[in-house]
Design brief:
The complex is a heterodimer of chains A (496) and B (186).
Chain A: H1 2-10, H2 14-32, H3 38-45, H4 54-79, H5 88-137, H6 141-153, H7 163-176, E1 180-181, E2 188-189, H8 195-198, H9 203-219, H10 240-262, H11 268-282, H12 294-317, H13 324-335, H14 342-347, H15 349-379, H16 385-404, H17 407-425, H18 430-453, H19 465-495
Antiparallel strand pairs in A: 1-2
Helix pairs in contact in A: 1-15, 2-4, 2-15, 3-4, 3-9, 3-13, 4-5, 4-12, 4-13, 4-15, 5-10, 5-12, 5-15, 6-18, 6-19, 7-18, 9-16, 9-17, 9-18, 10-11, 10-12, 11-12, 12-13, 13-18, 16-17
Chain B: H1 16-28, H2 31-52, H3 59-62, H4 69-83, H5 95-100, H6 109-123, H7 125-128, H8 130-144, H9 150-170
Helix pairs in contact in B: 2-4, 6-8, 8-9
The chains are: A mainly alpha (496), B mainly alpha (186).
């Protein structure tokens, strides 16, 4: 209990509280702005947190993550332009409800469902993180390697069009992480004699480039797109009748979202889409879906926010990111000198509880801010792109440079941005590459240790039941797209 | 000019089987992804060559894991995955349409010009310094993207970079490269 109190007391510092508030405001703002996303905002803010205390820095980034997931629903409902990918499913019913003149009701439902989802997942986070960390403490290098491979294999089912492209992106990310000095032999790899590259490619510059620069170039092509707007919003909390109608949907989505969040690599977007599908499947009013059904708003909103809390569990307990944004938060932990994984829970448990507290506060803050300021946040889409994106580039420039005061990082950011832009056109998302980049050192280190332990005998991996379990799960996640139709057919024939 | 009737596929006669073969091949292999596959494979070949150029280390030091071993393992993984790219559309519900959604529109000149402008600013970044570079971005990018309100552009170009510089250097202790401003500072 003592670490819990110590952790929560850390947040009592008014400055930390102020930073959480800033994180929430920035999160809701970027979440609401189409094109800007919470991974991008976390990546942009990352270098600026160097001067902050680790608790304050991570609390701010985690708050931004929570609020950003909710923020996307504001514009999804009001202008049918989901500010962030997790809010795509919210627009299916949120916008039709708003068109009926019930924008306030839709926003209220979204906000309350989001908070319930967020708080539910945080309770799971509080209970599951220490348990998972305890289990992970018994892992040896082969088990850790198998876990990391499983996490990378989950990229196959991460949101996006193509499983193969996600896997290629993840592997390229791991390959980029090998740039620099090889730890075992001291040999320089892919450095081409450049001293800047001996230390490897700083992930901060790559993150900023992929998420911010790539999107900037993408946005330059959509300058003429105008958004339809719904006016006169009076945000209402859900009525008792509405709440009774959606309570089971919310509960189901809470469980589903948290579970999906805990799975490595799967994030809020997958959770939201599954939350919507499940809400529809269990609903007695299926015909109302797509026309402004309350369950169609509550389901995805509870699920995507539950996934945000769930994704923090593997990130903090295992050092394996639960989503694209938590991959960046993991990078922030490394940047602040922490060793993410079971040792974090063992050595600095109060730190984990401080993050829990920050996310809990953030959930209630965005409820207040979201309800009171929905009208204002819907207006931020009026900021012309011609000023918004130059501002994003300014942050990218300063962020990439300030990390290590090196022009080389600015070049890395620019090149990563152009590569990210080209990649996106061909169906390669930035998140898998980032996951690979961050997991890369762990994969290589654990694989090398295992191979030395096993005297280069690959078959000895199969001696451990945990390794076998992870390899089985890896195979399952890789071949799931092929075997899932078979399962569906079997399920259908058994129910008929 | 082109008033001759275009022969229908069934009128072609002896070439029909060839046409069918082409149709079958194009149905099996997705053209744009085939090109993408060739590019990725060529890139992998180049990187593989680089790995072969790594400094050699004694076996005892490498412990059977030379520095090129892991990158080469990754490259083989990428190669295997890439080889399936031209056939991936066969396993997707919406097929080629889904994969081509983002790339069907050509890259607009504005994106290339924007990239070139930002490239130019980064080239001059060290000489100009952070603050001047920020101002340049704010002055040049909005008009390039079609903004015509000059007063707003200039206000933005002055207020935004100064606020960023002030907040970040004072609150977050971020170092700003002075560049040519150093000549005018005491």
């Amino acid at each position: 209990m003592e670490p819990v109190i110590t952790g929560l007391l850390l947040l009592a510092d008014p400055f930390n509280f102020f930073l959480i508030f800033c994180g929430v405001v920035v999160g809701v703002t970027v979440g609401a702005l189409p094109g800007l996303s919470s991974p991008m905002a976390v990546a942009l803010l990352l270098p600026f947190t160097i001067g902050l205390e680790p608790v304050a820095a991570i609390a701010m980034l985690a708050s931004l993550y929570c609020a950003g997931t909710f923020g996307g629903s504001i514009t999804a409902i009001l202008i049918n332009a989901p500010g962030a990918p997790p809010a795509v499913a919210t627009a299916f019913d949120g916008y039709p409800m708003a068109q009926r003149g019930e924008a306030g009701r839709a926003l209220g439902l979204a906000a309350v469902s989001s908070v319930i989802g967020g708080v539910f997942s945080l309770v799971v986070f509080l209970l599951a993180t220490p348990m998972l960390a305890k289990v992970a403490l018994s892992f040896n290098p082969p088990e850790y390697f198998a876990l990391a491979v499983f996490a990378l294999s989950m990229l196959a089912s991460i949101s996006g069009k193509s499983s193969i492209r996600n896997l290629i992106g993840g592997t390229v990310g791991v390959l980029i992480s090998t740039i620099g000095i090889h730890l075992t032999t001291g040999v320089e790899r892919f450095t081409f004699g450049s001293p800047e590259m001996s230390d490897g490619i700083h992930f901060v510059a790559v993150l900023i480039g992929l998420f911010a620069m790539g999107e900037l170039l993408n946005q330059s092509q959509t300058l003429k797109v105008t958004l339809e707007r719904i006016e006169s919003i009076v945000v209402k909390l859900p009525s008792r009748a509405d709440f009774n109608r959606v309570k089971w949907t919310i509960l189901r989505s809470c469980g589903l979202g948290t579970f999906i969040g805990i799975l490595p690599a799967e994030g809020s977007t997958v959770a939201a889409i599954m939350g919507y599908n499940e809400a529809k499947r269990w609903s007695k009013n299926k015909e109302e879906f797509g026309k402004g059904c309350p369950e169609g708003i509550a389901g995805p909103e509870a699920a995507n926010n539950a996934a945000a809390g769930g994704a923090m569990v593997p990130t903090l307990a295992l050092g394996i990111p639960g989503s694209g944004t938590t991959a960046i938060i993991l990078a922030a932990l490394i940047m602040h000198g922490f060793r993410p994984g079971p040792y974090l829970m063992n050595e600095t448990p109060h730190f984990i509880y401080a993050i829990f507290g920050a996310m809990l506060i953030a959930n209630f803050m965005f409820l207040g801010i979201g309800l009171a300021g929905a009208k204002l946040f819907s207006r931020i889409t009026l900021i012309p792109k011609t000023f918004l994106w130059p501002a994003v580039f300014v942050f990218s420039l300063v962020g990439a440079y300030s990390y290590s005061s090196s022009l080389f990082d600015v070049w890395v950011m620019l090149i990563a941005g152009i590569v990210g832009f080209v990649m996106r056109r061909h169906g390669f998302g930035p998140a898998p590459l980032v996951m690979g980049l961050i997991l890369g050192p762990l994969v290589e280190e654990r694989l090398s240790q295992s191979m030395i332990l096993f005297d280069n005998n690959w078959f000895r991996f199969f001696e451990s039941p945990i390794v076998n379990l992870f390899f089985f799960l890896t195979a399952l996640s890789l071949f799931w797209p092929l075997i899932s139709p078979l399962f569906k057919r079997l399920f259908r024939s058994s129910t008929q | 000019m082109n008033d001759q009737p275009v022969p229908k596929e069934r009128d072609i006669g002896p070439e029909t089987s060839e046409v069918r073969k082409e149709t079958f091949a194009s149905a099996l292999v997705h053209g744009p992804d085939l090109v993408l596959t060739v590019i990725i494979l060529a890139f992998c070949g180049l990187v593989y060559y680089w790995t072969s150029e790594f400094e050699e280390v004694p076996q005892l030091l490498a412990q059977n894991l030379p520095p090129e071993w892991f990158p080469q393992l990754l490259l083989w993984t990428i190669i295997v995955l890439t080889l399936s790219l031209p056939f991936e559309h066969l396993f997707l519900k919406a097929g080629k349409k889904e994969l081509d959604e983002d790339r069907k529109a050509k890259v607009q000149p504005i994106a290339i010009i924007t990239a070139l402008l930002l490239f130019g600013i980064v080239v001059m970044f060290e000489t100009l310094g952070t603050i001047i570079s920020m101002i340049l971005v704010c002055i040049l990018l909005p008009p390039l993207w079609g903004e015509r309100r000059l007063k707003m552009i200039f206000s933005f170009a002055i207020i935004f970079p100064s606020t960023v510089a002030f907040v970040f250097s004072n609150l977050l202790k971020v170092y700003f490269e002075p560049g040519i401003l150093a000549l005018f500072l005491p």
